[in-house]
Write a structure and sequence with these properties.
With about 425 residues, the protein is an alpha+beta fold. The chain has eight helices and twelve strands.
Length: about 425
Amino acid sequence: MVLFSASVLALLAFIYWSTAAYMSRQVDETIEAEIKGLAERYETDGLGGLTAQIADRLTAQQPGDSSIYLLTDRQLNPLVGNINRWPRVREDEQGWFNFQLGGSETKRIHRARARAFFLKGHFYLLVGRDMFELEDTQKLIIRTLAWGMAITLALALLGGVMMSRSMMRRIELINRTSREIMSGNLTKRIPTSPAEDDFDVLAKNLNRMLDQIELLMNGVRRVSDNIAHDLRTPLARLRRGLDQLRLADARGELRQDLIDNAVSEVDGLLATFNALLRIARIESEARREGFARIELMPLLQDVGELYGPVAEEQGLQFNLACESSIAFHGDRDLLFQAFANLFDNAIKYTPGGGAITVRVDDASRRVTICDTGPGVPESERDKVFHRFYRVDHSRSSAGSGLGLSLVSAVAKLHGIELRLSDNGPGLCVTLQLPDQ
């Protein structure tokens, strides 16, 4: 309100200054024009003509006329005019007299402005204007501007109060929603209005942040549940084996078998936790320091050389026809691990006699890995990227359910879009590489 009022005050001050200055210039130009006209009359008709001209103008004056005339001799004795003496003030630097007038008719003292002109024959001519009309006009302008300023302040105050109340209502709505969320209701969201104003943009951003927080909280809860569920069995086996080891005969071969089994179980647990830590590090984007320019074709060929013989041993056709020229910026080790996990899943869930095909489309920068296995139901395709999630038909096979979670983390780090689709039969995993 203060800033707005100061701006309006500056605007009104400029209006007053420009208006008053314009009116003053008009007065000065009128006086100079009259002096010029009277001087020309004196040149043509002499003192008599000039005196008659001034007398005619004084006779024609109406009440309230502000013209001032005075013709004097060399001793400044009045000859004709509507003031009775020469002003007792000095001229300013521009030759103007600024003096005061007062009388019984006006009942007040006011300012006058005039200019003198020396006539041949040692006569002096004073022409001016009574400034009472200008002063009244200026006072009227000042009163108008003052009222305008007062109305502006009132409207600014009213508008400021209304805006403040509106803003406080929106802020209180955000605060109330935040308190409900902090009390444990993670599904609560900040309401928005159709206005699409700055508060709505803020509310939408906060709601998206809350969606992400809820997703992460659910993910943590789901991971905790899955850890408790999936690691309970190997831990139970480890506990049973240690109990048997404690009761076993030290000289028998059973002791060594129990120790080997316990070590194997511990190695599996360590591998699971290492995979979780690796996924966490990738999702925190702490591996960007290893990014470099990568050619896709050599990368896929290296992964194919590793898993091609494994597929052939299981009686699978492994088709890797890769003649790609795609290059992009990324971490080669992470991408190698991601493609290796995808190839490993395809081999693991494809029955004998099936086929695994890897296609690369340079134009669309797309890599597709298809198998002829059981596939993934459409309702579960988003869930398979969650930690420890396993489709029903894969629960009996070895694994911890972290492979596709690592693939998802690596893809997100590199800006790669993952899509699952039906291969009829089987599953197709499409990786949409970013434009670079």
